[in-house]
UniProtKB/TrEMBL annotation:
Organism: Eutreptiella gymnastica
Chain residue ranges for the region called Disordered: 152-171
A Pfam cross-reference name: LRR_9
Keywords for the protein's UniProt record, in alphabetical order: Leucine-rich repeat, Repeat
InterPro entries: Leu-rich_rpt, LRR_dom_sf
Cell membrane is among the record's keywords: no
Protein known as: U2A'/phosphoprotein 32 family A C-terminal domain-containing protein
Keyword NAD on entry: no
Any one GO cellular component localisation term in the record: ciliary basal body
Lineage, top ranks: Eukaryota, Discoba, Euglenozoa, Euglenida, Spirocuta
Length: 171
């Protein structure tokens, strides 16, 4: 089955956007609010703003796409598992958009440019203390304890090692 994704040209680049029809056809539900699990691996998606209309989604698999921001995920407050390997998330500070996701237990961000930062793992664990697994590696008690000792200044210094400005938190 071929998925219909909306493609828009922006400054000579194609932007592949997630559409309501795509999600409803893939999940076989009648309303975006009923979506619990969505797997759209490898679809060259860039624009996933439609996620803002899926507050009840629990598992999202959007690996191997072209997503460059985590902002739209902050609206999926029931999210428990988020798979975003091999996307274009470059700024480690994007992780702050996931702070409202108190139920998030599993996060995969490996193979994104942000995961190359030396402070990647402690930075993510500090901002998302409820995580149990990061990139398919269990978060140990020792790791949690060492991250808890970091101050807000330590975390801010980690974030400043990146080039992009800090994102505005989701309200």
């Amino acid at each position: 089955a071929v998925l219909r994704l909306s493609i828009h040209s922006m400054e000579g680049r194609e932007i592949v956007r997630l559409t309501e029809n795509t999600v409803l056809n893939k999940t076989r539900v009648d309303n975006l609010k009923h979506v619990k699990n969505l797997n759209l691996w490898g679809n060259d998606l860039v624009d996933v703003s439609l996620l803002q209309q899926m507050p009840n989604v629990e598992v999202l698999s959007l690996s191997v796409n072209k997503i460059n921001s985590l902002q739209d995920f902050g609206h999926c407050t029931k999210l428990q598992e988020l798979y975003l390997r091999k996307n274009n998330i470059g700024d480690l500070q994007e992780v702050r958009f996931l702070k409202p996701l108190r139920h998030l237990k599993i996060l995969w961000l490996c193979d994104n440019p942000c995961a190359n930062a030396s402070s990647y793992r402690p930075y993510v664990i500090w901002h998302l203390p409820q995580l149990q697994k990061l990139d398919n590696v269990d978060i140990t008690d020792n790791e949690r304890q060492s991250v808890r000792r970091l101050s807000e200044d330590d975390i801010a210094n980690m974030a400043q090692r990146g080039d992009a400005p800090a994102p505005k938190p989701v309200v």
